[in-house]
Structure formats: C-alpha cells, structure tokens
C-alpha cells in the first residue's frame, strides 16, 4: 500500500541515484537514461556546476519571493534573453511549463481583448485550465465543466486550415514547433511561417510552446532559431533549471508594455535557487558547446537507428521519435531489460528519445546496440 494517489502508470524501476547520463537502482544496476524524466534532466545527473550553484544559492538565500528584487534573478533573465532569439525584452519566471503556457494565454487575452485561440491537433500544453483547454485529447481528463475560451483546432501542418482559422476574433495561435507527447513531430517550417504571417495580418499573438523542445534540445537554443520564426511569446520549462522546478515566459516589448502591476503573479516562480540554476544551465550549454554535440550525435542517431525494430526517425536534435514495428510499450520493456530507458508517446508505435545534452558517442553506441538487439 502507498500513501500516494494512484494516478500514474509507473515502470518497474526505482532509481536511487544518478550520475551523468546514468541511473542506478538499489541493486546497483545501471541504466542509460535517454528519457530524463520527460526531458527534464537536461544536463544529466549530479552535474558538478549545477550542484555547486544549488549549494551556494541554498546557503546564501534559500527563498525570497518577487516582492523583493534579487540580483541573481535579474542575471538569470538577462542570460536567458541572450540565449533566446533576438526580439524578446522581458522574462516572467514561473514554476512549470503549464504555468508558462497559462500565462502566455492570459497575456494574449489581455493584450488583444479577444476571446478565441487557435491550436494544433496533437498538441500538449499542460493540465491547468487554460493550457489544458488547448491540449488535444483533454476530454478524457479535463474535469472542469467548461473551457475558459473557444478553441479552433487545425490539422497538423495544414497551412490552408491555419490561415482560414485565424481571424479578427483570434487572440492567439499556440503551437509546439516540435510536438513532444505526440511523438516528436516537427511542424514544417512553412506552417510556422504561415502562423507568423497570419497572426501579424490579423493582430493576433503567436505563442511558441518550447517547454519540451527548448533549451538546446533541438540542437539550437530554441526551435525558433532553427526555423527562423520568432513568436511574440515563448514558453519554456522542463530542463530550464536542469531538474529543479522552473519555467519562464519570454515576451516581446510590445506585449510587456500591455501589462501592469498585478496582472501576473507567482509565489515560487523566480526563487533564488531556481534562477541560480537557470543561469548555470545556460552557461554550461554555451561554455561546453553542447549544441554542436547535440546536432552531431542527433545526426548519428538519425542515420544509424533505422533498421530492425525501427522503421523511421522523426523529430529534431535530442527530441526524437523512433517509429517501431512493434508496440512502443513492448520495445521500451526490451530496452529496459538491456539497461536503456526511453519513453513512449501518444502514438503507440513511437518510442521517444530525450537524452541529456551531455551525451557522448559511447552512449549513442549503447543506444544503437540496444535497438539492434530488440526483436523486430
């Protein structure tokens, strides 16, 4: 019996510690973690610079809210803006991806005074009321008696449907440049460019949800840089603080000036330990040149993973979906038996790889060997 509410499907593995890209169970069995707790362990486990930053922050100032200014919070915001595409001027720190997306929608409604949102089929934006309203398949678990806004759904990658959906009542178009839970599905650049044109034409707000695909996971700081399309609002979280709960909303100046005191708020967002880790994560990615490594090793996985149980590879960087001949849940069990952790997707035939950015060639070798050993 457990005191925890039984709402999660759990795998038969209880890790007791982590080191680099490895997890260890109580018996000392080692697993290569190519999933990172839904893309959260961005720099793996026990990264020495993250541990040092966390210890210093905890000993210096364990917590303070946004009612007081903090130099470390300001530094983290500046580093994040420098990492992001040009065009953003302000950062609002929160605790999670759902909260970042929730506030993105709130900003869009406040700025435009309009009621409608356009979303893309297959999207997952979170489980809070607003973010879940624009999440595909929410009907199974939404729980609220009504959604807070009308949502128009457009098929994945359908430029014509997108252009027809955006009009004078549209407050925002929200999308993941690379859909995570759907199975690492990368939206075509033409679709992203059409979203930018349509929102500009009708005075709507373009929101990129880069909660999963941001922070270097695609091999670029954000997918926005990879596709050459800059949104008005960009939400990020997951690996933002390397495993510590943190999220952020980046805003263009035109939207930031629409907001006044009290329009947004959070108790724990922007706490000193979280933002110290945000600052450190950006510094590690840049100083250790991890983006180049992600692009190179992703190309290896794409080129060498197809064969046997894997029929195709989709996605970008270290957000990859492996299309499999057998149900993904069975492939995942076979990989675990070979000491490799990966993840599933809403698509039952897709295995997701979300390894840490610190991965090396030897780890890619192990993943490829494991995939080749799985029966097709």
Walk me through the topology.
Elements (H helix, E strand, L loop, with lengths): L14 E5 L2 E4 L4 E4 L2 H4 L8 H13 L10 H13 L4 E7 L2 H16 L3 E5 L8 H5 L17 E4 L4 H7 L4 E6 L2 E2 L5 E2 L2 H14 L2 E5 L13 H5 L5 E4 L10 E6 H4 L15 H16 L2 H15 L5 E7 L2 E6 L3 H10 L2 E2 L8 E4 L7 H13 L3
Helix pairs in contact: 2-10, 3-10
What's the CATH H-level homologous superfamily of the largest domain?
Type I PLP-dependent aspartate aminotransferase-like (Major domain)
Overall geometry: globular
The proportion of residues in beta strands is 15-25%
The strand line-up of the biggest sheet is 4-12-11-10-7-5-6
The CATH architecture designation of the largest domain is: 3-Layer(aba) Sandwich
Uncertain segments of ≥5 residues (pLDDT<50)?
A: none
CATH class of the largest domain: Alpha Beta
Fold and architecture overview:
This protein is an alpha/beta fold. It folds into two domains: 15-39 and 289-373, Alpha-Beta Complex (Aspartate Aminotransferase, domain 1); 49-287, Aspartate Aminotransferase, domain 2 (3-Layer(aba) Sandwich). Helix content is 36%, strand content 19%. Helix 2 (48-60) packs antiparallel against helix 10 and helix 3 (71-83) packs parallel to helix 10 (272-287). The longest helix is centred in the N-terminal third of the chain and has 16 residues, at 97-112. The chain is globular, with a radius of gyration of 20 Å. The model has no long low-confidence stretch (mean pLDDT 98).
């Amino acid at each position: 019996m457990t005191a925890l509410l039984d709402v999660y499907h759990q795998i038969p593995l209880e890790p007791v510690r982590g080191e680099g890209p490895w997890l260890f169970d109580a018996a000392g069995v080692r697993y290569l973690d190519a999933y990172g707790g839904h893309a959260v362990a961005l720099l793996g486990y026990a990264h020495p610079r993250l541990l040092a930053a966390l210890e210093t922050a905890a000993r210096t100032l364990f917590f303070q809210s946004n009612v007081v200014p903090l130099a470390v919070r300001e530094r983290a915001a500046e580093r994040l803006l420098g990492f992001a595409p040009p065009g953003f001027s302000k950062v609002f720190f929160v605790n999670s991806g759902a909260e970042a997306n929730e506030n993105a929608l709130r900003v869009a409604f406040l700025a435009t005074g309009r009621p409608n949102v356009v979303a893309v089929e297959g999207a997952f934006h979170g489980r809070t009321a607003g973010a879940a309203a624009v999440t595909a398949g929410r009907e199974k678990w939404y729980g609220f008696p009504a959604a807070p806004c009308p949502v128009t759904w457009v098929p994945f990658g359908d430029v014509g449907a997108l252009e027809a959906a955006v009009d004078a009542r549209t407050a925002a178009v929200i999308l993941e440049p690379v859909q995570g839970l759907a199975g690492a599905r990368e939206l075509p650049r033409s679709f992203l460019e059409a979203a930018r044109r349509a929102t500009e034409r009708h005075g709507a707000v373009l929101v990129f949800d880069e909660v999963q695909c941001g922070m270097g996971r695609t091999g670029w700081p954000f997918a926005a840089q990879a596709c050459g399309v800059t949104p008005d609002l960009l939400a990020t979280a997951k690996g933002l603080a390397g495993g510590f709960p943190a999220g952020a909303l980046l805003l263009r100046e035109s939207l930031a000036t629409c907001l006044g005191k009290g329009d947004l708020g959070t108790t724990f967002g922007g706490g000193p330990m979280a933002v110290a880790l945000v600052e450190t994560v950006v510094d590690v990615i840049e100083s250790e040149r991890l983006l180049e490594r992600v692009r190179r090793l992703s190309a290896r996985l794409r080129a060498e993973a197809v064969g046997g149980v894997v029929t195709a590879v989709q996605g970008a960087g270290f957000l990859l979906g492996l299309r499999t001949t057998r149900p993904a849940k069975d492939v995942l069990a076979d990989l675990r038996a070979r000491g490799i952790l990966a993840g599933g997707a809403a698509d039952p035939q897709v295995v997701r790889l979300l390894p840490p950015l610190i991965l090396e060639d030897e780890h890619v070798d192990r993943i490829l060997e494991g995939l080749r050993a799985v029966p097709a």
